[in-house]
Amino acid sequence: MAKTGIEEVAGLAHDRTFGPVVVFGLGGIFVEVLNDVAFRVVPLGPRDARAMIREVCDFPTLQGFRGAPPVDLGALEDILSKLSSLAEQRSELHEIDLNPVFVYPAGGGPSMHGASSLEVHRCLDNYGAGADTATRPRAVVLPAALASDRGQLHHVISQRRFSTMAKAIEVTDSTFEQEVLQSTQPVLVDFWAVWCGPCRAVAPVVEEIAGDYEGKLKVMKLDVDNNPRTAVAYGVQSIPTLLVFKSGKEAERIIGAVPKKVIVDKLQSVMS
């Protein structure tokens, strides 16, 4: 049995629009109670895994608090990357629920009910070798060694339905002119950073707006740490800052984690 550590949840889900998605969040019963999870569409890069971990509200506890040492974030990133790789390699995997994943200080590694990330691969290899592809269930594949309680993660996923996932598109310094300034539609750009708490607070609102205005408005996200040139060019001095562009020009500016209605009112004034 695994020793107690900080509980996180990691897994895979399958969205009907975006396909396989890696999920990460606060584990144990809290994944269902707090619904604090981050999503990324497969494939994941190292930067994606790092960003996911930093988006959830318990990230400060992973960094160490009240004298506790920081956890092995690299090992946690490795699990998320391996889940992404598994989703790419095994198209029949529609859901994996690793809950809880116990995370320990550097050198201790993560534990999934006592199983290492390498054992996840072995379990899947054994499953694939022993299953008939003609009769293998395709809606949900859950080897018993990988999940003890499918219900919690499934509840979170069914509640969110990924309506707040991946509709906002990442934009960079190099793509800003084409994606934003040359757009024939109005564009909402969220200037943010992974370490920014208020940015995380407003992110679900931005994603909801992306869904609400799909086909009428482009919603973009620009990481100011990785793309400082655009942030400087538009005088972004605090984040989150939301800029609304129309016909290649800034039409509205919203600073801070404001309520959804404030953003919608600004959008309506531009789009009317």
What secondary-structure arrangement, pairings included, does this model have?
Blueprint (H helix, E strand, L loop, with lengths): L5 E10 L3 E8 L3 H4 L3 E5 L4 H10 L3 H4 L10 H17 L6 E8 L6 E3 L4 H14 L19 H11 L8 E2 L5 H6 L5 E6 L4 H16 L5 E6 L4 H6 L7 E6 L2 E7 L4 H12 L1
Parallel strand pairs: 6-8, 7-8
Antiparallel strand pairs: 1-2, 1-4, 2-3, 4-5, 7-9, 9-10
Helix pairs in contact: 2-4
CATH class of the largest domain: Alpha Beta
Q: Class by helix and strand content?
A: alpha+beta
Integer count of domains: 2
Radius of gyration: 20 Å
Strand content: 15-25%
Q: What is the residue-mean pLDDT, rounded to a whole number?
A: 75
Please characterize this protein's 3D structure.
- The protein has 272 residues and is an alpha+beta fold.
- It folds into two domains: 6-160, ATP-grasp fold, B domain (D-amino Acid Aminotransferase, Chain A, domain 1), CATH 3.30.470.20; 169-271, Glutaredoxin.
- The protein contains ten helices and ten strands.
- It has helices at residues 30-33, 46-55, 59-62, 73-89, 117-130, 150-160, 176-181, 197-212, 228-233, 260-271, and strands at 6-15, 19-26, 37-41, 96-103, 110-112, 169-170, 187-192, 218-223, 241-246, 249-255.
- The strands form two sheets. A five-stranded antiparallel beta sheet has the order 3-2-1-4-5. Strands 6-8-7-9-10 form a five-stranded mixed beta sheet, covered by helices on one side.
- The longest helix has 17 residues, at 73-89.
- It is globular, with a radius of gyration of 20 Å.
